[in-house]
Known about the structure:
The chain is mainly alpha-helical.
Amino acid sequence: MPMTLIVVAITVVISFLAWQKPALMARLILWPPAVNRSKQYDRLVTYGFIHADGMHLFFNMFTLYFFGRIVERLFGTLGFVAFYLAALVVSILPSYLAHRDDAGYRSLGASGAVSACLFAFIVIAPWEKIYLYGAIGIPAIIYAVLYVAYSIWMDRRGQDNVNHSAHLWGAAFGMLAVLLAVPGAAGDFLRALSHPNG
C-alpha cells in the first residue's frame, strides 16, 4: 500500500477522533504556550493530523492523495515520510515564531505539507494541467503563480481563519526539496519551463 494512502488514512482517523474528543483536539493542535512552556514540540507535527471540519479534511486529503503519490515515487517510501513530516514543521515554524507569545493563537491542518507536495509536483511537471473543481485545466506553473499571489494577498489581509503563511512556506519547501535533493532537477525544471509544448 502506498505510504501516501497510509498518511491519508491516519489523518482521517485522527481527525475524526479529535472531533469526538475535545481533549485530544486540544492536545494535538498547535498552541504556542504548550510548546514554549511545556516543551511539547510534537505539536509542530501533530497539528497536521487534525482538521477543523469535514470540508477542510476532504480538500487536503484529496489533494494529498493525487500529488503525494507522485512525490512518494520521486523520494521513495521513507523519503516521502521524511519530506512530509519536515514540510509540516517548516511550513508552520514562521507562524509559530510570529505567535509564540500569543495564547489565543491556534493552528491545525495539513495544508502546509499538502502545498509542499503540490509544488514538488510543479517542479517535476510545470506544464501538466492541474484541474480546478475537476473541470478547469490550468498549467501547473501558471497555477503556482496564481496560488502564491492569492496566498500573499490573503495573508496580508488577515481576514479569515486560514493560515496562508503555512501554504506559502510549504510551497517553498516543496520546490526547494526537489531542486536540492534530486540530481538534475533544477536543469530539468528550467528546460521544461522553456519548452511549454514539450
